[in-house]
């Protein structure tokens, strides 16, 4: 027990509550068993409010992206904790909020944690589209999954276009006949300039997003360091007597 990510049974929860009732401090339990202070406190509050039913696992709730964002914003604004927010919004486990904050500061979406469904067969494209997609993917540090969602093409298409673009430049993305499948002539000077501008805009947007994520992450680390400065780390988690 006590390891990060562990799930606690009803018996476990009652055991730690019993230790507190016998005079042991929550801080002492955290040091000895590795169970988070806020977690034990939350169990005690639920037990005192509604008894054993408050300790039983609840049916998994579905939260909207807007709701998650609201909770994360409140946490990052400061002046509150995971436990307080869990209590305020009736969220069964405050570690859920930690996961939302971690997702947000990592620049990931709240909408889904599942891998996006990708196109297998791809779609027809012009040379200009292939160049734009290849440039966008490179500007975004080869984020193929994002490119698939952004342009609605297949993984195989993006991978091949990026590889060809790196090896031979825009000309490598012409079709085998030397012109686009649509029958259109090769790129005009205006189109070439447009593609250069789009590539630059994509890179600037990506770097700007990375900078914002780093700022949020540093702020979060600073807050976590302040909150945990008085916690004594434990080395072992003794079994229950």
Automatic annotation (TrEMBL):
Gene3D superfamilies, A to Z: Winged helix-like DNA-binding domain superfamily/Winged helix DNA-binding domain
Organism name: Levilactobacillus koreensis
Region (Disordered): 171-190
SUPFAM superfamilies attached to this UniProt entry: TrpR-like
Gene Ontology biological process terms from the UniProt entry: DNA transposition
Protein family per UniProt: Belongs to the IS150/IS1296 orfA family.
Compositional bias of kind Basic and acidic residues: 173-190
Protein name as catalogued: Transposase
Keywords for this protein: Coiled coil
Residues annotated as domain Insertion element IS150 protein InsJ-like helix-turn-helix: 129-181
GO molecular function, a single term: sequence-specific DNA binding
One Pfam family this sequence matches: HTH_28
Residue ranges the record marks as coiled coil: 190-217
Highest rank taxon of the organism: Bacteria
InterPro entries for the chain: InsJ-like_HTH (IPR055247), IS150/IS1296_orfA-like (IPR052057), Transposase_8 (IPR002514), Trp_repressor/repl_initiator (IPR010921), WH-like_DNA-bd_sf (IPR036388)
């Amino acid at each position: 027990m006590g390891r990060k990510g562990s799930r606690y049974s009803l018996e476990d929860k009652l055991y730690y509550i019993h230790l507190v009732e016998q005079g042991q401090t929550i801080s002492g339990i955290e040091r000895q068993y590795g169970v988070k202070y806020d977690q034990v406190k939350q169990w005690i509050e639920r037990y005192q409010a509604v008894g054993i039913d408050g300790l039983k696992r609840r049916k998994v709730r579905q939260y909207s992206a807007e709701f998650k964002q609201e909770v994360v914003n409140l946490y990052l604004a400061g002046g509150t904790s995971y436990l307080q927010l869990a209590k305020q919004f009736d969220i069964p486990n405050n570690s859920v909020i930690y996961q939302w904050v971690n997702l947000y500061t990592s620049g990931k979406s709240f909408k889904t944690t599942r891998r996006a469904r990708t196109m297998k067969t791809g779609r027809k494209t012009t040379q200009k589209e292939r160049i734009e997609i290849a440039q966008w993917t490179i500007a975004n540090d080869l984020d193929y999954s994002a490119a698939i969602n952004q342009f609605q093409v297949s993984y195989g298409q993006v991978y091949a276009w990026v590889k060809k673009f790196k090896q031979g430049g825009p000309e490598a993305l012409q079709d085998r006949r030397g012109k686009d499948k649509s029958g259109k002539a090769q790129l005009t000077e205006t189109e070439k300039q447009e593609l250069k501008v789009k590539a630059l805009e994509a890179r600037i947007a990506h770097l700007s997003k990375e900078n914002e994520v780093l700022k949020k992450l540093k702020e979060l680390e600073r807050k976590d360091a302040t909150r945990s400065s008085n916690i004594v780390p434990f080395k072992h988690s003794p079994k229950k007597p």
